[in-house]
Amino acid sequence: MLAGAATTIAGVGAVLALADIDSPLRAPFTLFFLLAAPAATVAIALRNLEPVGRVLASLSAAVAVNLLVAQGMLAVHRWSVPGGIAAVAALSSLILLLVLVRRLRGRTARRRVS
């Protein structure tokens, strides 16, 4: 139930920022999205770590992804809030896709050996 609430808050934050809707909840929900989306995907990738280490590593990775997106957009003079939200969402989706593909390949390789 907590994961569903977090996903809803993050989704609402992304929609509020992308649609440019003025709301007092826009800033905190968008900030939550910018931290939660990359952190969740990295936490899925690091499932073999201990919980405290996984939380610290995933939050650090989320901050690093956000800084890299911001620096990249500033370097090419294409900074925009909706663009940053979209770039973070795309990178988070890409990380999740790579993790899922790696897991599926690992299962197939194990089945072939057996």
Automatic annotation (TrEMBL):
The chain crosses the membrane at residues 27-46, 55-75, 81-101. It comes from Streptomyces dioscori. This is Uncharacterized protein. Keywords: Membrane, Transmembrane, Transmembrane helix. The lineage of its organism: Bacteria, Bacillati, Actinomycetota, Actinomycetes, Kitasatosporales. It comes from the Bacteria.
